[in-house]
Structure formats: C-alpha cells, structure tokens
Specification:
Elements (H helix, E strand, L loop, with lengths): L2 E6 L6 E6 L6 E7 L9 E4 L2 H9 L5 E4 L2 H10 L2 E7 L12 E6 L4 E4 L8 E5 L4 H10 L5
Antiparallel strand pairs: 1-2, 2-5, 3-4, 3-6, 5-9, 6-7, 7-8, 8-9
Length: 145
Amino acid sequence: MMFVMVLSACGNETDKVDIGSEKVSETLYIQKVEDNRTTEEQTAVRQEKEINKELLEKLDGMEIKKSDESEIKNKMNTQDTYTYSFSDEGDLSSGSESDFSFAVIEDGTFLMPENAEQSGTVSYQSVEKHPELLNEMNHLVDISF
C-alpha cells in the first residue's frame, strides 16, 4: 500500500498531488476503456516496483482541482480512458478494490481520488491536460493499446 494525499495550495482553488511512494504496491493493473468497454487485449499487469514508483513520481506535484463527479463521468464516457490501479492483493478482478487508482482521459486529463481510501471515486482532475505525460507513462509501462 502507498500513501497518497491531495494537499491544498494557498490562495487559489487548486491543489497538488503529493504521493509518498516509500512503500509502493507490488502490482500495477492498466486498462484502456473504449466506448465504455475493455477487453483482455486492452489490459496489462506489471509487477516491477521500480517502474511503479517511477510512474507515481510523475504525478507528484501535479496541479489538480476539485470537480463535479458527474462532469468527470461524462468526460470518461465520451473519450477513451486509461486506468492505472495499484494493489498488493494479487489478482485485481472486476469489482475488487485497489490500494490506489487513477485514470487518464485520452486528451491528457488526469483524474484522481481525494485519497487512497476513496480510490474508486475520482473527484479531482488535472488543471491542465498532459497528453505527452500520458504517452510517456504508457511507454514506461510498455503498453501500446
């Protein structure tokens, strides 16, 4: 399990992601959701702690803002989305909970939970779109879907 926290910034309505990755989860599950569906071909599992840690470090310090959940769901339903889920519980099957998850819409909008305990509920989105970071992360975990 890892420590993930959203810290408030002073004076404006944005926050920053703070990831304490001193204890990184063993397993990373990646899925691409297209047209609200995913397939086995669009699912990957990675069990390389150093890569998982490097992936999380890329999120550290990202400027995010609280968003309406229905607005976020609408974005996820109208664009392809990548989900990244970290777990130490072995197989992460449909419906099971991860230690920490986040999603990235294909346009580069990052979607985050408020904290690891609410990992299944994304309530923050990145202030800016980061399509190059999404490509970098997918390259790091060696996926091409």
